[in-house]
Amino acid sequence: MTGRTYGTRLPGFPEGPLHGRLVVVEGADGSGRTTEVALLREWLEVEGHAVVDTGLRRSDLVSGEIDKAKQGHTLGTTTLALLYAADFADQLENKIVPALSAGSTVLADRYIFTLMARAVVRGASRDWAREVYGFALKPDLVVFLEARPEILLHRSIGKYGSLDYWESGMDLCLSRDFFESFFLYQDRLSKEFDWLAGQYGFHRVDANRAPEAVHRDVQTLVAPLYGARGVAPRVTTTRRPAASG
By CB count within 10 A, which of 17, 26, 53, 176 is most buried? Predict the structure, then answer.
């Protein structure tokens, strides 16, 4: 990949191209991102590619602090955005760039686009969000898994047994009811993702279907990055556990 960023580069950032590939899988909670990243990793490793996966709240520096802060349900928009920016910057410097420099593929279960959408929905300007996360590398491919809100609701409850405070937008005081707030929040996020898709070139995939069908479409998008143009990639269905973003 080129090693270009969306804005100001981090100090000490390596000059020149990076030899690996950065593939981002975006989508709302419940869209099947984590399952798809696991399937992609298995497929790419079988094809002989070294793979490193990453996501939100996975840095050694601040991920634990973010979890603690969110438990209090009192984080302000700016504080939340800056904490996630620190988390992402730490992973970029210590995990993503080293892996790409070594020629590995990095699979990101969510990227700065989720962080930007969340910040804007909570009142930040698009220019501010773009500036805060502008140090991010430009991915080789951004796949957006698009699922209907009712599907997201069903999957979230099936996975967690209840709705998450932050993923339901309860901090925005859209409604006192978790379910109503969830739909209102997802509608706002969806509109912001629509704008981001046009600005950053997302490749949309229908995620209302079974994981195997979604995976076939994603493989078709990923295969050309490895010179497999016009080749129907093998489909695997075995899943491995992966941390949620």
Answer: 26
Model pTM score: 0.88
How far is residue 229 CA from its own chain's centroid? 25
In a domain, 1, yes or no: no
With H, G, I as helix, E, B as strand and everything else as coil, classify residue 23. Answer: strand
Residue type at 231 in one-letter notation: V
Closest CA to 109 of 215, 196, 34: 34
Whether 9 maps to a domain, the answer reads no
Give pLDDT tens digits for 170-202.
Answer: 999 999 999 999 999 999 999 999 999 999 999
CA dihedral 64, 69, 75, 79 (to 10 degrees): -40
CATH of the domain at 46: 3.40.50.300
pLDDT at 112: 97
Question: CA nearest 54: which of 13, 22, 79?
Answer: 22
pLDDT digits 0-9 by tens, 133-154 = 999 999 999 999 999 999 999 9
Q: In which domain, by residue range, is 51 found?
A: 21-224
The answer to whether the CB of 144 falls within 8 A of the CB of 60 is no
Total domains in the chain come to: 1
Residue 93 has a pLDDT of 92
Instruction: Indicate the helix (H) or strand (E) that contains 158.
Output: helix 149-160
Q: DSSP secondary-structure letter at 171?
A: G
> CA-CA distance, 215 to 107, in Å (whole number)?
14
244 in a domain, yes or no?
A: no
Residues in a beta bridge with 24? 108, 142
In a domain, 239, yes or no: no
DSSP 13: P
